[in-house]
Structure to design on (112 residues):
């Protein structure tokens, strides 16, 4: 696979799940990664269908995770109607690292 990325970082907020009328679902969450130079890089991660259910069951805010996937480009319109793009990681696999955070945050469900 040519387009692959692996990151290790901490989950920034509890995953949100979106369920579509087609029956598909997507979990979305952010991961903060230290770049080794005292800077934090933020990645948006998307997990689709069965993977979204695993994310909701296991990934919580503050948890250290290893995320594997492919880079994707999401095109969207801003509130001002301007075209914009954002890099995202389309997750294919994850591993939980480190200890479970002391306070668990619940995930949110959003209907689409």
């Amino acid at each position: 696979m040519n387009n692959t990325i692996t990151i290790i970082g901490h989950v920034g907020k509890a995953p949100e799940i979106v369920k579509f009328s087609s029956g598909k679902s997507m979990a979305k969450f952010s991961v903060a990664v230290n770049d080794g130079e005292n800077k934090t890089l933020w990645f948006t991660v998307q997990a689709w269908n069965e993977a979204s259910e695993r994310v909701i069951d296991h990934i919580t805010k503050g948890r250290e995770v290893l995320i594997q996937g492919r880079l994707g480009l999401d095109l969207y319109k801003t509130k001002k109607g301007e075209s914009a793009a954002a890099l995202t990681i389309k997750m294919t696999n994850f591993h939980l690292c480190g200890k479970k955070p002391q306070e668990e945050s619940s995930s949110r469900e959003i209907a689409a």
